[in-house]
């Protein structure tokens, strides 16, 4: 029998989920002109880097290039936008909040049921960009979970609902 922990929590074996272009497009309209975007979990081929760089300067980094999010920070950047690994969610959001700069990180909606976001955003305004459909990540054969952009100091209001157009 499979326990709930096996279903809800990744053990890190399949943590690389590539966001398709239609999962990146909805965030583009909220990026202020001229702001430098740091995509800390992305290679130059990610849709985040490819689409955002059409309208804003982008710095990308990835652990495979020796730029670990927990130890690396570019010299100059304004906003973090990316799809981080779904393991170590709490640590990722803790570090993002330590910068005191806006961010938009794509994360599974089930994380809202966890104690970590409640604690992390107790005295901060969590903002959510939510969708009418689930995103089919490029390396998956099926859609297994819904996700939203978890944001801080980024969206015009606390909850924004958008349609996803493939």
TrEMBL record:
The superkingdom listed in its UniProt entry is Bacteria
Q: Where is the signal peptide?
A: none
> Any idea which GO molecular function terms this record carries?
methyltransferase activity; nucleic acid binding
- Write out the coiled-coil annotation as residue ranges: none
Question: What's an example Gene Ontology biological process for this entry?
Answer: methylation
Annotated InterPro entries = DNA_methylase_N6_adenine_CS, SAM-dependent_MTases_sf
Keywords, sorted A to Z: Methyltransferase, Transferase
Can you say what this protein is called? tRNA (Adenine-N(6)-)-methyltransferase
Q: What is the lineage of its organism?
A: Bacteria, Pseudomonadati, Bacteroidota, Flavobacteriia, Flavobacteriales
């Amino acid at each position: 029998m499979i326990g709930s922990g096996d279903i809800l929590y990744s053990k890190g074996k399949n943590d690389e989920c590539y966001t398709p272009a239609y999962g990146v497009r909805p965030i583009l309209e909220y990026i202020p002109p001229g702001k430098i975007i740091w995509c800390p979990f992305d290679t130059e081929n990610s849709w985040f880097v490819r689409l955002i760089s059409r309208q804003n300067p982008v710095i990308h980094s990835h652990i495979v290039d020796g730029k670990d999010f927990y130890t690396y920070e570019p010299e100059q950047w304004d906003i973090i936008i990316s799809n981080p690994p779904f393991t170590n969610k709490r640590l990722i959001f803790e570090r993002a909040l330590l910068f005191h700069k806006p961010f938009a990180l794509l994360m599974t909606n089930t994380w809202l049921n966890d104690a970590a976001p409640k604690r992390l955003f107790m005295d901060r305004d969590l903002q959510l960009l939510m969708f009418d459909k689930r995103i089919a990540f490029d390396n998956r054969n099926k859609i297994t979970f819904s996700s939203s952009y978890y944001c801080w100091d980024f969206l015009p209001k606390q909850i924004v609902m958008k349609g996803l157009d493939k």
